[in-house]
Structure to design on (253 residues):
């Protein structure tokens, strides 16, 4: 049996998830990533994982559609058996997602439902489905946002989902302690990925504004987040549990 630890990173094709996957590979883990529609980007991430000397696998997942999760799990287990001679993963990183900007007055119900489905319901039930195929002693990292701590007009629905994920994570830590599975949240500040591309391109002054609100004086990059998540998936972080770790360069401190 392969003794390398295996991490599953949702939304590993681009942005933060890609950097998490590469840092996990650098730390000696094998990595399964998921993508939604961008198979080419997922393949590029796989190539980079393999260039780090780790084994990788990319699977399609629509994180908003809980009814597909059983099929996803079955495909995952088949691939794990074939390629790793195991049925289990060690770490689950719930990262996949997208943003939505809209004031309380303007947010349509459809946008709210979409956010719930991907950012909260998807995280809740993907974790539920993965628990039987997770090794005891492993860990879960859920990706939240600085916006769950501080309030920025226009993000009420998105931020509320992240707040829910933070509460969920503490419950996971409590309930999974008997299996020695840790659960933590990583909360990035504003990061320069596709997630913010349109906004940053259309209103470059937003970049300066965010930099001025950040103690370290700049917007974050994906490389600021991946190593934090990868650390939580090592034995060095074995005693870190039920925590919210913000990586925002000190936004609104
Ligand atoms: P990106 O837009 O760069 O990447 C999004 C990733 O999620 C892609 O891999 C994409 O797959 C995948 N994805 C999108 N929608 C779905 C879906 N319905 N089902 C499955 N996968 C999906 O975003 P980031 O990397 O910036 O964001 C990652 C996480 O970090 C999100 O949870 C976000 O809320 C959070 N975050 C981001 C911040 C930021 O400023 N960037 C700040 C704080 C938190 P594909 O490539 O196939 O489209």
């Amino acid at each position: 049996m392969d003794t390398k630890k295996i991490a599953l990173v949702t939304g590993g094709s681009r942005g933060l998830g890609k950097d998490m996957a590469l840092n996990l590979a650098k730390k000696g883990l094998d990595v399964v990533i998921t993508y939604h529609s961008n198979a080419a980007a997922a393949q590029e991430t796989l190539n980079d994982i393999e260039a780090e000397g780790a084994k990788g696998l990319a699977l399609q997942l629509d994180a908003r559609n809980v009814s597909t999760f059983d099929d996803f799990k079955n495909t995952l287990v088949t691939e794990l058996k074939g390629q790793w001679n195991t049925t289990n993963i060690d770490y689950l990183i719930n990262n996949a997602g997208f943003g939505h900007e809209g004031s309380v007055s303007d947010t349509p119900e459809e946008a709210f439902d979409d956010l719930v489905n991907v950012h909260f319901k998807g995280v809740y039930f993907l974790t539920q489905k993965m628990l039987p195929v997770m090794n005891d002693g492993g860990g879960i990292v859920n990706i939240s946002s600085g916006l769950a701590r501080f309030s920025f007009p226009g993000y009420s629905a998105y931020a509320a989902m992240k707040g829910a994920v933070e509460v969920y994570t503490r419950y996971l830590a409590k309930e999974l302690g008997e299996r020695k599975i840790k659960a933590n949240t990583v909360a990035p500040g504003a990061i320069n990925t596709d997630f913010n591309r349109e906004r940053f391109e259309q209103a470059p002054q937003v970049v300066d504004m965010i930099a001025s609100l950040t103690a370290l004086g700049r917007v974050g990059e994906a490389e600021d987040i991946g190593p934090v998540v990868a650390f939580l998936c090592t034995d060095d972080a074995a005693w870190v549990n039920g925590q919210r770790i913000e990586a925002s360069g000190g936004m609104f401190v």
In short: Residues 193-221 form one domain. The mean pLDDT is 97.
